[in-house]
Write a structure and sequence with these properties.
Elements: H1 8-30, H2 40-51, H3 55-75, H4 77-97, H5 104-117, H6 122-147, H7 168-207, H8 217-242, H9 247-277, H10 284-292, H11 294-309, H12 322-344, H13 351-360
Length: 369
């Protein structure tokens, strides 16, 4: 008996999301400060803010929630809990040993909360999703206020020049301290927003739009028509706010990043779904290959970027502007497209996916009631 064919849309969205997330993460990897960009770098920063900042992380989070729901339906909550435990372990290793900006541990922790809500009626999940998103936005803005003015404290936007040190012990100490701070203080602020997006993904998966977009053409068209003008307004405002070093503008930038990010995430999803529904999604298979190896590709991005920017590698931290980061990100992503296609000609999954799968399928588990 052959395995059922994977749906194209979720993998393609996940693959594109990895590219968009890389463009934004390069700000952290490189030590770039958005409002200090001028000339061509200012244009490149505006491009990333408008098209990527907040958009693809929202997409990725919704797809994670959809994936949890599909796996629970297929294998039960017990096995999914074990998968989340394995993901948490990978996240800890990633955060402590490679890059402090890890999202895997956060996803796993909030994923356990999602499991407790996974079988609620869709209407209840929808209410919790909206409340979680709104609470998360308020908490994110509060965290920015607590962190203080980024002019006085560059670390509030992720800049830490200890990463430029050629001494690997100095870099490691800074990474461990940053990741500890992220887990202990950022997660409580991060969790409601993330849970809201997870639940939205669950609702999309339950509706069938991710697997059968051809049945949802009219709602998808309406979604695109509504989110396009709204998203343009929000993201133009984000570009303006992120170009300012005024503290109040940085607080507004947080709210615009979340709202504009979700709006454009829904727009991107609707447009790609319409392409698939119309039978014009052949090109998307290149991105779907990246999405099928999402975990391996995400970790590879961290390994390559820390070697390029951190002092124990090429030592480019704090030296690149937004244009160089954008070009590098697009180039690295192009390489990942090629490597993913090559890998899938010989293997069913990537090395990180195989490691995680081996962990959560290593022994039978009893499903929770």
């Amino acid at each position: 008996m052959t395995a059922p064919e994977r749906a194209l849309l979720p993998d393609a969205l996940r693959g594109l999301a990895l590219g968009g997330i890389l463009l934004v993460n390069l700000q952290n990897f490189s030590g770039l400060v958005p409002w200090q960009q001028t000339g061509g770098d200012r244009v490149a920063q505006a491009f990333v803010d408008f098209f990527a900042n907040g958009k693809w992380i929202s997409t990725f989070a919704m797809l994670f929630g959809a994936g949890v729901w599909l796996l629970v339906r297929r294998a039960g909550r017990g096995r999914e809990a074990r998968r989340l435990l394995g993901l948490f372990g990978l996240g800890l290793a990633h955060g402590f040993l490679i890059w402090s900006g890890d999202i895997l541990a956060n996803y796993a922790l909030v994923g356990f909360a999602l499991l407790s809500l996974i079988r609620l009626p869709p209407a209840v999940q929808g209410v919790v999703a909206v409340l979680g998103f709104l609470l998360g936005a308020a908490l994110f803005a509060s965290l920015t206020l607590i962190s203080g003015s980024p002019q006085a404290d560059p670390s509030s936007v992720g800049v830490n020049f200890a990463f430029a040190s050629p001494d690997i012990t100095v870099v490691s100490a800074a990474r461990i301290a940053d990741f500890n701070t992220s887990l202990s203080s950022s997660v409580p602020f991060f969790a409601p927003w993330l849970l809201g997006l997870f639940l939205l993904g669950v609702l999309f998966a339950r509706s069938g739009v991710l697997t059968h977009p051809d049945r949802f053409r009219r709602p998808l068209i309406v979604t695109a028509l509504v989110t396009f003008p709204l998203g343009v307004l929000l993201n133009v405002a984000l570009v303006r706010a992120n170009a300012s070093d005024l503290f109040k503008d940085q607080v507004w930038a947080v709210l615009l990043r979340l709202s504009g990010g979700l709006t454009f995430a829904l727009l991107y999803g609707a447009l790609l779904a319409l392409l698939v529904a119309g039978g014009r999604g052949a090109l998307l298979r290149l991105f779907a290959n990246v999405g099928r190896l999402a975990l391996s590709n995400y970790l590879l991005q961290s390994i390559v970027c820390t070697l390029v920017f951190y002092g124990y590698g090429w030592g480019q931290y704090g030296r690149w502007g937004a244009t160089a980061c954008l070009a590098f990100g697009l180039g690295l992503y192009a390489v990942q497209i090629a490597l993913s296609a090559l890998c899938l000609t010989r293997f069913d999954r990537g090395p990180a996916e195989s490691l995680l799968r081996g962990f959560y399928r290593s022994r039978p588990v009893k499903d929770a009631p």
